[in-house]
Write a structure and sequence with these properties.
By secondary structure, the chain is of the alpha/beta class. The chain has a single domain, classed as Rossmann fold. Helix content is 33%, strand content 16%. The chain has 9 helices and 10 strands. The strands form 2 sheets. Strands 1-10-9-6-2-3-5 form a 7-stranded parallel beta sheet. Strand 2, helix 2 and strand 3 form a beta-alpha-beta unit. Helix 1 crosses helix 2. It is globular. The protein binds fructose -6-phosphate. The site of fructose -6-phosphate has 14 residues, from loops.
Length: 260
């Protein structure tokens, strides 16, 4: 794991944007996995700015989102479809046919999940998967006890996750209980996992992810098995890490060719 600790979410998001931009410049046909939630919003703002001001070209990029609520139409204001169009896709040049988000309204969830996995495979696999993290260590909506080998499937949200999403739906009672999410096995297949975490409320989950024992009770610990997991944190999210000084030293002393 590479742990990058930045003073705040703004600088962390800039580092993450540079990593994504470098990939897109080096590999115009890159496949990018996107996440929703509060955490990647500044990253997406940076990507939009780079597209406008630095001619960062997304026209050949293919995308796969991590998850979507079951029973929520794409046009619903709290769907992840709406989120992605509001914050990113409406402002980039990715053709619609290259954008993939699970269909929460499908009549056949197993078939939809199977096809999603096949689409990722036929696109050549995900080059970089952007991730946030739940306070309980979920990645995508792989709640605690999700199998490390899981693939795209239906999952039931924990009460905590529904509480976290309450504001978006005008109350916890309106938050759907089920979602379609890429599995931990799907995420692990990505060539790079780029996890962002900002704020004190993520500190415990981050400490368990980086320095805790591998356990399905903290799904994000699966990243310990990934050969290229990069975690971009602000100081607050990093505040429970015992080896924070070491991670900072490593990052500050990277050779130039390794810097992003
Ligand atoms: C979003 C997702 C979730 C979020 C996580 C953190 O697509 O899959 O795992 O990344 O719940 O959410 P925020 O960023 O809102 O704290």
């Amino acid at each position: 794991m590479e742990i990058i600790i930045q003073p705040d979410s703004q600088q962390g998001s800039q580092v993450a944007a540079r990593i994504v931009a470098r990939l897109v410049r080096e590999k115009p046909h890159a496949v990018i996995g996107f996440a929703t939630g509060n955490t990647p919003l500044r990253l997406y703002k940076n990507l939009v700015r780079m597209h406008r001001e630095e001619a960062l070209d997304f026209s050949h990029v293919t995308t796969f989102n991590l998850d979507e609520y079951v029973g929520v139409p794409a046009a619903h204001p709290s769907s992840f479809h709406s989120y992605m169009w509001a914050h990113l896709f409406s402002q980039l040049d990715i053709p619609n046919g290259q954008i993939h988000i699970p269909d929460g309204m499908t009549a056949d969830i197993p078939a939809t999940c199977r096809k999603y996995e096949e689409a990722i495979k036929s696109a050549g696999g995900i080059d970089v998967q952007i991730l946030g993290i739940g306070t309980n260590g979920h990645l995508g909506f792989n709640e605690p006890t999700s199998s490390f080998a899981s693939r795209t499937r239906i999952k039931t949200l924990t009460e905590q996750t529904r509480l976290d999403a309450a504001a978006a739906f005008g109350g916890q009672e309106n938050v759907p209980s089920q979602v379609i999410t890429m599995g931990l096995g799907t995420i692990l297949d990505s060539r790079m996992c780029l996890l962002l975490a900002f704020g004190k409320k993520k500190a415990r989950a981050i400490a368990l992810t980086v320095e805790g024992s591998l356990t399905a009770s903290v799904p994000s610990t699966v990243l310990q098995l990934h050969p290229r997991a990069v975690l971009v944190l602000d100081k607050d999210a990093a505040s429970d890490l015992k080896m924070a000084d070491y991670y900072t030293w490593v990052y500050d002393h990277k050779p130039d060719w390794q810097k992003s």
